Prior knowledge:
Elements: E1 6-7, E2 10-11, E3 27-31, H1 38-48, E4 55-58, H2 73-89, E5 94-100, H3 116-134, E6 139-148, E7 151-156, E8 174-177
Parallel strand pairs: 3-4, 3-5, 5-6
Antiparallel strand pairs: 1-2, 6-7, 7-8
Amino acid sequence: MHSEIMSSGSKVLYASQTPFDAQRIGAAAVYCSDGRFGEQMDEFLHKGLRLPRYDRVAVPGGAACLAGHTCAYHQKHALDRQLDFLIREHGLSRIVLIAHEGCAFYRDLWLGLRTMEEQQACDLEKAATQILASNPKVEIEMYFARKVSGLVTFERFGTGEACSCGVRQSPPVSMSVSRTL
C-alpha cells in the first residue's frame, strides 16, 4: 500500500487496511464508554455473538441512562433518539445491552439495599422494556462483563428467576475473552 494516498486534493493521514463492507447486519450494541473494556466488547460481539459488524452506542453507564435515573435525564432522551434513529434507518432487529463490573456511572447512584450488580441487572431490564415500548419487534439481549483472573468474561444477565426489581431474567450464558485489563 502506498504510504501516502491523495483524496480530494488533501493528504490522507491514515488508510485502513480493512476494506469497507456496505452490508448491514441489523444489530447494535449499547455499552459503557469505559475504554478499558473496548477491545473485549468488540471481541465478544465479533466472536462470542458472531456479529461481524454492528452499530456501536458507547455512553457512560451504557443502557443505564434508560432506566429512569434522575441524574441521567438528558442522556436518556438523547439515547432514546439515537436508538430510534438507528432502528429505523439501519433496519435494526437486534439490540445487545452490556453492563460491566465496577462501572463508575453507579458510584454516585443511590442503590438502596441492592448491590451494584443487582442494580445493573434491573437497569438492563428497565432499558430493555423502554426500548421495546417503542420498538416491539426488536430482539434484545443483556450481558454482564466481569474481570476474572486478568480476563474479561461475559455472561447473560440473570438465572431465569425474577431479579430484585421483579422482572424475569434470561438463562445464563458465559464466554471468556483472552485480553487482560
